[in-house]
Each structure stands twice: as structure tokens, then as C-alpha cells.
Amino acid sequence: MAATSSDLPLSPTALTRFLDCEHRTHLDILERRGELGERRRPPDLELLSERGMRHEDAILQGFLDAGRDVVLLAGDRAEADDLARRTAAAMAEGREILHQACFLRDGWIGYPDFLVRVDAPSELGAWSYEVFDAKLSRHAEPRHIFQLVFYTDELARLQGVAPQKMHLLLGDGATASFRPEEFAAYAGRVRAAFLVRHAELCAPGAVPAYPYEVAACGFCHWWHVCDARRRRDDHVSLTAGVHRSQGLRLEAAGVHTLPALATLPVDRDVPRVPRTTVGTLRAQAGLQLRSRGLGRPLYELLEPAADRGLGRLPLPSAGDVHFDFEGDPNWGDDGLEYLFGTVFEQAGGPVYRALWATSRAEEKQAFETWIDWLGDRLRRYPDLHVFHYNAYETVALKRLVARHATREAEVDDLLRRRVFVDLYGITRQAIRAGTEGYGLKALEPVFGFQRDAELRGAIGSLRRWQAYGQDGDPSHLDGIAGYNEDDCLSTRALYAWLLERRPDVERVFGAPLAVLTAQEPRPRSDRALAQQARTDALRDRLLAGLPDDESGDDAAQRARRLAFHLAGYHRRESKPVWWALFARRERTLEELRDEDPEALSGLEVLGCEEVGRGSRVWTLRYPEQEFKLTPGKVDEPLAGREATLESVDEAARIVVVRRGPRHGTGAPLAIGPAGPYDTPAQTDALHRFAEGVADAGTDRPDPGLDLLLARSPRFAAGTPPLTDGPVDLERLKAQVRGLDRSVLVVQGPPGTGKTWTGARLAVDLLAHGRRVGIMATSHKAINNLVAAVDVAADEAGVDFRGWKKCAKDEDAYDSARVTSGKAGPPVEDGPVALTAATAWHWASADARRSVDVLLVDEAGQVSLADAIATTQAAGGVVLLGDPQQLAHVSQGTHPLGTGGSVLEHVLGDHDTIPPERGVLLAASWRMHPEVCGFISETMYDGRLVPVPGCEVQRVDSPGLSGHGLRLIEVEHEANRGRSPEEADRIASELELLLDGGTCVGRDGRRRPLTLDDVLVVAPYNLQVRCLKARLPEGARVGTVDRFQGQEAPVVLFSMASSSGEDVSRGMGFLFSRNRLNVAVSRAQALAVVVCSPALLGARCTTVQDMRLVTMLCRFADAAGRRV
């Protein structure tokens, strides 16, 4: 544990505090000057600190009890200089374990909990050391990693060799190990930025960032200072609904205070904040201002929209339930819902009921008990509703369904019947309140609820739960239950108050309100009932007798558990799509526009014509917004009906929508994604596979079982074995021919000729009389490989008959050898040797054992479930793809990794396929060695190498010139998914490139650069549209997905977001290693990243986020800069 005394040098702890909040660092500096009073610590820190010390002591005692050689360096808490010298001396002596060592250098100090000797030589001798730090939490956090990296750097300095691993000893007894290189570039950059900013904050008159409230405030010893500052300043951030990015834009426009916002002229625009948003915030600030000094804050009724606000409020029922979860997000790997709290009416008054769960098994039992109780109550009171506040309760229930694979049909029925009523959404659409927030407790003064006086000042539920876990005192549970009961009663009081507002709304706005009515239970289809029965039977056969804790599974037990969960994969995948569709139907036009990144809202009619038999086609313009729609079926959320998106013109912001006569004649106001695809063939195939596991076990040859167990490929006698070395095509052909009811992975990194290789494998199989299947996730990918097969067949002089299965003309592929259609070619024309189709065909019972070898292209995007479902069609399977490029996207929550791609599953923790498990195409024919080197080291274990000739590739222009990596830093603020600043800079760079610029290809020939020689890539469609508006007509601009498989001399990648706080769609989306890999690896000569410099120091809230940002930092470290 790092020292915290304020008079010590800088430490990893000081760094993590700075990352949480710059203002906190400033206040720490002021304290050292004696300019602040005594620091106050919230009880959370004291409780966690005490528990953390006990955890560390227990680990130390365990080492001592085991008779380990432990050096207690901090027994007398010596001076830092002396302690650092004793640490170095103990390491030189080769002592086994050093407790509370000290590192002191260049104004930094750190106290690692344990240094443990390992058998790896160093300058010390035949040994070296790795750090093991004790942490109370059950999972690693970024602050822990910063400490580990600092300690690891110091170990490298003292022993002359960098440690291979660094470790955390976690609160649940587990040890988490990490590779330092996964984080070093980011940690070093953050540390350097911290030193610069710390020096600035130490200077007289330093002005720190304003103390906007952040997540870390609840754990900061200066929270009261900042809270007082905001109130003293009457800061604009006190306005409910003002996010930090909006606050910064308001301040840039001269609006610093809540009163200033409240009195902002109606005609005053705030740059980059929509006028409607400014109006909403102005009204909110005004209401808060007028509410000051009143015992009960004011509220205003909002004009109702159809089926929104109070129109979504049901009438009371004697069976109504008010529900609230208490959960611990840090329990185990996935958290624990430890209390199901319920208030319901009985004998004329409210009754509270608590269901507790202190283990995963108890959580499952409590979940089943609560759902069964609610189902019984619903049968007695068909008009009942379950009221809750905010979305956590329904999200947690869906998570529990996925986690425990139980009560799925019952929860589906409850959601479909709209039994759950979120009062938060209704309240936000119904009223504006003169409060600083719209949390339940913040609104209680408005609707007049008084909490139990004994509980108002009590410590929070989660902290009581943590204390219970420590000492087992049941009084902690009583306190939690009392607090939870108040939450349920508060929800009950809010519902009654909102119900009383309905007549006021009808009177004020002169229109009757709708009422949310109970939905009749929908009979389940015969197919759904049969599937449920099949799943229940599988559960009994596969899960009976397995350990309650899945971490105790042996290999056979894990296979049975995986097989069961895979059978439910497609069902789990479809649920979030339906849930999102129905949730979207409850949003307002404004919420769809501002908060939904997938839908289009605010559509303006430009024209309408009637076509066919009463169908209408609308031409519509949409306002600038993020969306994720492509031509095909869509949903109209405000109308609750289906339509077809015919086309999208992003440059003109125009869409064309068609709707049949039975779906109404009104113009669409908004469109969103439609429901999920139907997957009966895949589901049936996976059930057959799981039943096979239950019947015959896993100790038998089968390609599906090889995938399930990630087994090495099995070959017929005489087949050449796998080797670690350059790929020999003839040897690979023989291995594919020799597959013995097994699977071979051929991993193809960027530019290695995966499609070229796959086509020649297919032709070789055809030449040897084998029946070949081709599959991918899209018709475009399938057609691409079939076309390559045609070319390879021409070269080899091989003839064959092929069939591409498709239902639409635009998905067809036709040639002299291949015909397309929904049905196969006439049998009398001869046998079909090559069949190309999607998973829907290969998983069908009709396709069982229909080909000898199935080639699965773009396998990195194929789910494990779909891959196993389709193995039934073939004797052998070849997976062509790369999990390090565009990844499989899962919608659902899947247990035990069953939602991942097949290649992720097979490769496990490896970035490249191990030589004994498959084949790596390691020769890149595309990238200059400097580009390839970066990609190889960061993504492919250093195994990817460029072929000779790639080194001559270069670009020369008045602007960007040379080869390799470049970083262009563009300063901007508060951009989320669109940066005009980056678009302008890219337009300038493109103009310079085309101003007499030239490029040299692998053949050594120099030629002029053209518009087609530059790819401009962005992660967000908003930025793509922004770029298209500024670049010449015909420029190759698009998201990463569009350009996979393509290449160009120059690639410009615009990241668009201003900072980690501004990232749209999450850190995992923008900083995706796969996305950066695909973008950079399109480049033959120059790969250029254009971004805000703040992204390189983005604050990470998870360890995975740190890994992602590290990749960008490694690019920056390797790149030349252009300013």
C-alpha cells in the first residue's frame, strides 16, 4: 500500500487521484501549503482502508505460516532513504519475499506490498523479482495497474531486466497477472502529463480545472470543499441535466452561473448546443431559481405527447408491487443482486418483503422465488404492475435470466405485457421540477415523501453490505432492509402523486390522457413451447450434478455446461434486440434524436407518392444526428409499426421509406432498427449438438466437439503434421484434404492473402473430387471468396458446378461455373461440387453431411454458436479469418464466453494461433516494414513479417511524405462523434497529397497520387458525413467496416472524439484494438492517425480500457509527428 503522507514525494496514488480529478490534486497542493483546513475523509475510505490492511496482513501471515523466507522491511517504518537501500540489499541477497519494500527515485516513492523472487536471471544473479500487490477488491482496477507499472519499472531499474509479469492478490483469494507491455506506453504518457500539469498547479496563481462533480467525488476527502465552491459560485453545473460537456460550452459562451442560464435571452444561441436543449436547460434553471427558499420545490407540467409521460401511467390495482434491487457490482466476476425488496398491498396497507442472496446459488433461488411469486400474484390480479425507479431493475432481471438460464419465458411474458413501469422515464416526460437532480431522493421534497429519521443519516446500503461480509453481523442486513423499504415506499408515494397530476394535465392542455392498460397474456407458440421443453430436458441432462460454482468444473463438466448454454445462444441474442425495440417505442421524438445512437428522429417530409397496391413511399430529410441504419426492414417507434428503409443519402441527409397499406398512412416521424433475424435452423442444430453431448459425451471425433473443446486438428494417417514456420501451400492443401472429422484454423492477418489462399484450397479439394462448402456472415464476403475460387480454377484448369444460395438478386453471384438462386440447380444438369450459402443453410437438417469440407470465411466475425451449428454439414471445417480484425458483435449477455467468436474461443488468450493448433499466414504482401512492424508487435506476437519489396513503398508530396506511421494532433473540445476540426485538417492534408504527390509501389515504380490512393477512415458515421462534406467528390471515406480487405498507399484515420469523457458509444468502441488494427493495416506506405491529443491520456475506468488506449499510445510513440 502506497504511503499517503502529504509531505512525501509523488506517488502512484497521487497520480491516480489526479486522473480522477485535477482539482483534487490542486487541493492536495494547497493543503501542503497550509492553505486548507483539516482533511475530511468519507467513512467509505476509512472502512475500505481498514479492510484492505486486514487483507494484506492475512496474506503476509499465510506466507509466514507456510515457512516462506519473508523480509519484513517496514517493521519499524524506517526513513524512506534507508528503507530503499535495505530493499536493494535484500534483492541482491536473493531473499524470497520482501514485504513493504520501498522504491525512491527522481521525486517518486512507492511501497509495493510484496516482491517475490522468480527463477529468471537478471543482473542480480540467477533470480529476479516480480511485484505482488494486495488489493481488497475482487477485480483489477486502473489505479492498481498504475501502481504495478510503477513498481515494475523500478524493478527493471534495480535488477537490469524487466519483469515478465506483475500480479494482484485479490480479495477473493485469486491472483490476477498482467503483462507490463500491455499498459506501459499509456502509463508512461499519463505519468509524463501528470508531472507537467502538477508543476503548473504548484506555481503561484495556478488555475485548475473547475470542480465539476465526478464519480470519484464520493471517495474524495475534499468533496465538501468542491461542493461548497459550486454553491458559492452558484455554478451552472448545479442545473439538473447539465452534463460537463454542455457546461463547458455554456461557459465558453459566457454562461457561468445558474441564474445566468435562467435569464439567458430566448434568442441567444450557444455554439454546439442545440437550441431546443438550451431552451430546456434555461427552463430548468429558472424553475430551480424560483424554488430556492421554498419548503417544497416548484414543479411544472410538461405538455404530453401521445402515449408518453403520464399517458404511460396505469390505473391502480390491488395487486400493484413496488420493487427495488440492492446489488454489489464487485462481487465475483459479474456482481451479485443481494436483496430483492418488494412492497405490496395487503389488508389495506403496504407490506415489505425482503429476499436475500449471499451466494450465487442463493441469488438463483431468490430470483426464481420472486418471479414465481410475481407470476402467482399476476394470475390473481391480472391488472397489476410492478413500479420501479430507473432502468436498473429490468436490466438486472434480464441479466439474471442470462446468468442462470432460468425463468426466461416468465420474464419475457412480464416484459411483453408491460408489467414493469419505470417511473423515472414517466416523471422526466411529465414534469419539470425545481430540484438539482431527478434521482428518487432528490425528488422526494416535491412529492412530499419523508424517510425514516433513523435511516436518513445512515451509511449506504453497499457499505453496510461490505461490512456484513466482513463481520457477519445481522444488524447490517436490518439496516439495508430498512433503507431498501424506504426506497420502495418512496416509489409508491411517487406513483400516487403522479396519478393525482393526471387531471391537472388534462385540464391545462385540454386533451384526455391515455392509460397504460394491462396486456393480456399472449399464448406461446407451439414452436416456443417445444423449444422450452427441449431446453428444460437439456438442463436436466447436462447440468445435473455439476458444481454450483462453475470455476470448479473439470474439462468434461465445462464441456457439458458450454453445450447447454450454446443451445440458448440465439434466444439470448434476440432478447436485447426486442427489448431495445420496445424501449425505443416508449421514447419521445427528442429522446430518440438526442439519446438513441441507432435511430433517426425528427423526419421532415419532402415528398410522398403512392405505389403498388396502396403502399406509400416517403422522401424525408433528417436533422444531423448519430444513427446506425441501413436499407432493409425498420421499425417506426412512435407509431409501433414496421416499414422498409429503401435508401439513405448521408450527404443530403435524406432517407426514403416505404410502408404497406395495412400499416397506416401517416408520415414516419422516426425510424429505428427492426426486430432480430429468425434463426430456427441454427437453434435446432445447436440443440441436436447438445443432445449429442448428453447422449454420447465428448470423447469422439467430431468437428463441433473440436471447436467446443478447442482441440488441436486431427488428421488422417499420412497427412503432413503442422509445423512452426513459413506456410507451404502444397503442404497446407494436403492438411486440409487430410482432416479427419476435425477443424483447421488458418489465421490470416492483414495483407497475407487469406482469400487467395482459401480459394486455392477450395480448388485443390474440387480437383480431388471433394464436395466443398463456402460460408461467411454476409453475401458480400461469400461472393468475394467464390469469385476468387473462379479465378483460381481458371489458373489450375479445374472445372466444377457451383451453386450460390440466395433469395435476393442483389446477393447473387453468377458465372460460367456458378449459378444463384433460392433452390439448387436441376439435378439432371449434374452434381454440384461447390455450394456457397450463409449459416441458415449450413445449419439446416437438409444440409447435414452435404459437403466434405466447409470453408468458413471471415471466421473472426462468426459466433462460436453459429460455427458449431454449421459443422454438422461437413466432415471437415476450415476456419479462414482473424479475430484481431473486425470482431464478432454480440447483442446478448452470454455465460462462460459463449457469446464470443469461434476464433476467440479457439485462440483463447493467444493473439495468434499456436503452431500445434493451426496455421498462421505470416507473410504480409501489403505493408511497409514500419507499418507492418507496429501491427505485428501489437497484434500478432511479432510473427507477422512483410515480404521483400514492401520496403520500397513510399509517398512524396508537399505535405505528408515518406513511409511508416504519422500522428497528427488536432486540438478540439467537447466533440463526441463529430470533429469539424479534424475534418478540416484532413481536407488540407489531402489537398497537399494530391498537389503533385507521388507514390512508389512494391514493384518500385513511381506514379502520381490520385484520389483513389487515399483511404479516409472514421469510427462514427457522424464523422464520415462531416468528412464527406469537406472532401472532394469521389473521396474514399467510410467506417472501418467498409474498408476491410481493401488497401491504399495512404490511410488517414480520424478519431473524432475530443477526450475520453467525450467518447460516443464507449471506450471499447473508439479505442478498439481491432478497429485500429484494420484502419492502420490498410496502408501500404503511410498510416496516419488524426486525433485530439487528450485521447492519449484518456481516463480509463477499466483495465480493459487501459489496454485499448495503450495501443493508441504505442502508435503515437512509434509515429513521426506532423503539426
From TrEMBL:
Q: Does the keyword Kinase apply?
A: no
Xref: Pfam families: AAA_12, AAA_30, RNase_H_2
User: Coiled-coil stretches, from where to where?
Assistant: none
Give yes or no: UniProt keyword Hydrolase.
yes
Q: Which InterPro entries match?
A: Coronavir_polyprotein_1ab (IPR050534), DNA2/NAM7-like_C (IPR041679), P-loop_NTPase (IPR027417), RecB_nuclease_TM0106_put (IPR019993), RNaseH-like_sf (IPR012337), SF1_C_Upf1 (IPR047187), YprB_RNase_H-like_dom (IPR038720)
Which residue ranges does the record assign to the DNA2/NAM7 helicase-like C-terminal domain? 903-1092
Q: What keywords would UniProt list here?
A: ATP-binding, Helicase, Hydrolase, Nucleotide-binding
- Which GO MF terms does the UniProt record name? 5'-3' DNA helicase activity; ATP binding; hydrolase activity
**Which Gene3D superfamilies does the UniProt record give?**
P-loop containing nucleotide triphosphate hydrolases (3.40.50.300)
The YprB ribonuclease H-like domain is annotated at 322-498
Q: Which NCBIfam families match?
A: TM0106 family RecB-like putative nuclease
The protein's name is TM0106 family RecB-like putative nuclease
Q: Which organism is it from?
A: Baekduia soli
Which lineage is the organism of this entry classified under, starting from the top rank? Bacteria, Bacillati, Actinomycetota, Thermoleophilia, Solirubrobacterales
